[in-house]
Amino acid sequence: MKQSQTALILRIMSLMLCVTQIQAKDAEDPEHDYLGSRWDPIHFKPAIDQASDEQCLKCHQEILKRTTRSESPAGIKSEESIAWYQTNQNYSGPQETFHRRHLVTPEARRFMQFKCITCHQGHDPKDEVSGSSETAQSGLILRKSVDPDICLMCHGSFDYKVMSGLSGDWPEVAAKFENDCVTCHKEYRTVRHKLNFLNEYEIENLQANESDLCYGCHGGRAWYAIPYPYVRRPWLQRMPGALPEWAKNRPTKYDARFTN
């Protein structure tokens, strides 16, 4: 009887040791431990600056596999309705999810070169704010995993008030310029789209009948009521008058990570 009890105790201890070893192995391997993965260095500076899409999608591949609802909770079928982004002429195809519209749709592949780290620059899983601890990453946006200023670059309002000759939003004045943005922009603001998340060649070689594509990212898909303060090159001598008030204190170059 005593020997049986001893054998049972040894078996239990052996089993506990095996479980402990498995748990330790999982803790060392982020692929098998969710909590450990959340704090993996790749989610923070400086490692995230070098993260590839392949590394990100290894754990987050669901963002490209998700699909939109075929029918809303109210019973409205997607093919019988129009999403807000489908109202713009330069979008084609069925409704798509947010990430797919920025990464894999035909328009995204033609005009964009987004990477995961274009928008995602790390965040603190604990309370999503900088300065909450000695080791917290600095520069985080309070309670947001992406800086809204990045979204504003392509989703701000059409800033017609600072454009000479424009009296209203582009749809209201497009006919006056034969619906061609290059009517003016072949002379002004000629250095543009030199950002690593845009396909400069495709954008700069749009046909005259594709000018609505310009408006698509410059007011046509506005998420915000404010425009993005695009960088200003040195004020040209041929521009009449003094530097206008709205152009003062504008940045003269973009963040280096968008131009490298």
UniProtKB/TrEMBL annotation:
Protein name: Cytochrome c3 family protein
Organism annotation: Candidatus Thiodiazotropha taylori
Gene3D superfamilies per the UniProt record, alphabetical: Cytochrome C3
Listed SUPFAM superfamilies: Multiheme cytochromes
Matches recorded under InterPro entries: Multihaem_cyt_sf, Paired_CXXCH_1
Pfam families recorded: Paired_CXXCH_1
